[in-house]
Amino acid sequence: VQLVESGGGVVQPGGSLRLSCVASGFAFSAYDISWVRQAPGKGPEFISSISRAGKPKYYSPSVRGRFTVSRDKANNTLYLQMNELTSERTARYLCGRGYGVGIDRRGQGTQITVSS
User: Fold this and answer.
1) Cβ atoms of 54 and 71 closer than 8 Å
2) Beta-carbon neighbour count of residue 87 at 10 Å?
3) pLDDT tens, 13-24?
4) Please, which of 21, 26, 86, 109 could form a disulfide with 78 given CB 3.0 to 4.6 Å?
5) How far is CA 48 from CA 12, 37, 55, 77, 116, in A?
6) Cβ pair 85, 16 in contact under 8 A
7) How far apart are CA 94 and CA 66, in angstroms?
């Protein structure tokens, strides 16, 4: 099982980024897939998930309305479109196989820094 995130970087406040997560080694279409973020000095925060059918299943209150999760089953890829970024969004973003406490595999993550 492998999950590899990309798309992170430095962005100015108010900017946008799209993260990708390429999955391999398991039946991607058979699992809910999620995004988790970990900010410096804080625990992991479950922020979004998408169902096996490709429908958004969960957004945390902190990202709802600003982030959009999607998946491309043909390419085993998960996406997270992030808009209106603020400094509070600075964190490492990881994708995980599963939903909520059921996440059983995670990638290494990609770092996002929101700074002017």
Assistant:
1) yes
2) 10
3) 999 999 999 999
4) 21
5) 22, 10, 11, 15, 26
6) yes
7) 18
